[in-house]
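In the laboratory, one determines a bound structure by crystallizing the protein with its ligand and collecting diffraction data. In a computational setting the workflow is compressed into a single prediction: the sequence and the ligand go in, and a structural description comes out. We illustrate the idea with 4'-deoxy-4'-aminopyridoxal-5'-phosphate.
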Amino acid sequence: MNNASKINTSRSQELFAEAGRLIPGGVNSPVRACGSVGGEPLFIEKADKSLIYDVDGNCYIDYVGSWGPMILGHRHPEVIKALEKVLKTGTSFGAPTSLETELASLVVDMVPSVEKVRMVNSGTEATMSALRLARGFTGRDIIIKFDGCYHGHADTLLVAAGSGVATLGIPGSPGVPDAVIKNTLSIGYNNIDAFTDVMEKMGDKVAAVIVEPVAGNMGMVAPLNGFHEALRELTAKYGALLIFDEVMTGFRVDKGSAQGLLGIMPDISCFGKIIGGGLPVGAYGGRADIMDKIAPVGPVYQAGTLSGNPLAMAAGVATLKEISKPGFYEALDAKTEKLVTGLKKAASDAGIDFCAGHIGSMAGFFFTGGPVNSFDDAKKSDLDRFARFYRGMLTKGVYLAPSQFEALFVSAAHTDEDIDKTVSAASETMKGLV
Ligand code: PMP
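The predicted complex, in structure-token form:
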């Protein structure tokens, strides 16, 4: 962890230049380009446990965790063992394997509202398919989402979106026809009055309300008391479906996902990230009567050549088994609490406007006094200060997401020493931000 005050990233820079000639922006997902923090991406050579190593030999404590999946840390022995076992048998068959049922059964056991689940390959596919299902099931078109929530890059959902859309300040996206988004309404997160108003006006035309139960794509924003209760009550009243997009929160904030923690039963839930143990997986599941509307049982079509891929299923099964062990979430929660408390103290010692919080091992912070309960609040964060903080932490060996509008993830592999080092890096960095 001896990164000098200015780290050498020359090999990363060469590789980025080379990639830029062949790949748009040099990256296969926009936020990775690090443009909003005034930097260039690090090219990664390897990662192990809580640490990630770039191609120039620098080592960082990793709080990105591949944007959420790596709750066990990198290269967890049980995940590697499961992958090696599958590798001996083949990598894809396009036919059912028992691993798919094993993962489905873990999900159904762990997540309160899920009776049946369909595997896909990404979070985007999960939310896109869940919306088609909701529309097919209800025979209605209108979708309600919330400002600053990101649900993947399907056309219908690229409205007032968070994550990279927020980071890059893109209002919507060219290529998404007005006709496609005219049925998508986006309202303020945590704004119960606005939601009630919309439902009173058009609730009987709404197919689904989709929400990040704990928002993570405008930075981390927790739901206020009563928000999800209002969503559940009013969707039920008007016959609309409630979709929890648990791509980020699923198995992250609690073994039972956000719905387990909040005690809310959505009709459909979407998963990604942790469910694949670091391999590309998404899933959507819910009430059996709804899920049985999907082909081949029902008429709503959704398919996938690589869906249920055995390597991905094996990594998912190994991960869900590990996180089911007693005390797993309590330990993660305690570590994250220690980190967040340390960050807050570092900021207050430096006299910097700052607020931070966490739910389980999903954490977030903003350079504003807060409170941050919505995307409008999140946008009050001092983005220049964030960029300087990000760069300062990087030079001190701490790898954070390169955007204010992303969450921070602690893994089971983070040690107390990692947390202490991170907090002292933050104290030092904050002093330079005043
Ligand atoms: N929903 C949420 C809540 C997400 O955080 C993300 C990705 N960050 C997605 C959907 C899209 O998932 P993917 O990138 O796997 O398509």
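The chain has a mean pLDDT of 96. Keep in mind that any predicted model is a hypothesis to be tested, not a measurement.
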